Amino acid sequence: MGENPHDYLDPDLSAAIILNHVKHGKKLAVEHNLPRPVQDIIAQHHGTSLVKYFYVEACNNKEEGQEEILKEDYQYIGPKPQTKEAALVMLADVVEATVRSMMPFKDKEQTIEATVEKIIRSKLEEGQLDESELMIRDIDTIIESFSKLLAGMYHERITYPTIKEV
């Protein structure tokens, strides 16, 4: 909510800042002696995903004669999630951020559950979950659980009345 500092930066600089948070997080985890599994999850929680927003911005802003925009410059270095826990953190992070950024939904046909399902299935299709221990049968349970949780967080709220002064 409010002003977004990325609105004033080039897409390549914004992507570099976003991509760097994994490295920075891993460094902090090591400095604070967090358990190795936690360090691994931090390193894996974006896999090799594309920072699509800034990649698309860079492609759309490309000027004639400018160097080709490479997807690799807009991708996390990975590795892909290696455990169920790392995969769940990846999915929780991406669905929460996406749903939050879309609230309130502009299209009445759009639902939290449909959005969650689309995001999770895209991660599956991209191969981001291939190295984790998640099973296909787990996907529907994850979609249902995340959808219920997010619906509870982002449900429409009533406006509370105030007492009239007499």
Description:
With 166 residues, the protein is an all-alpha fold. The chain has two domains: 1-79, no CATH class; 81-155, no CATH class. It is 55% helix and 0% strand. It has six helices and no strands. The mean pLDDT is 91.
Short key terms for the protein model shown above:
166 residues, mainly alpha, 2 domains, 55% helix
SSE arrangement:
Blueprint: H1 11-31, H2 36-44, H3 52-61, H4 84-102, H5 112-126, H6 136-153
Helix pairs in contact: 1-2, 1-3, 2-4, 4-5, 5-6
In short:
By secondary structure, this protein is mostly helical. The chain is built from six helices and no strands. The longest helix has 21 residues.
End-to-end Cα distance:
37 Å
Q: Report on the biggest sheet.
A: none
Number of strands: 0
Helix-strand sequence: HHHHHH
Using the CA coordinates, give the radius of gyration: 19 Å
Stretches with pLDDT under 50, minimum 5 residues: none
What structural category characterises the helix and strand content?
Answer: mainly alpha
Mean pLDDT value: 91
Helix content: 55-70%
Form type: globular
Strand content: under 5%
Tell me the quaternary state.
single chain
SS element count, helices:
6
Domain tally: 2
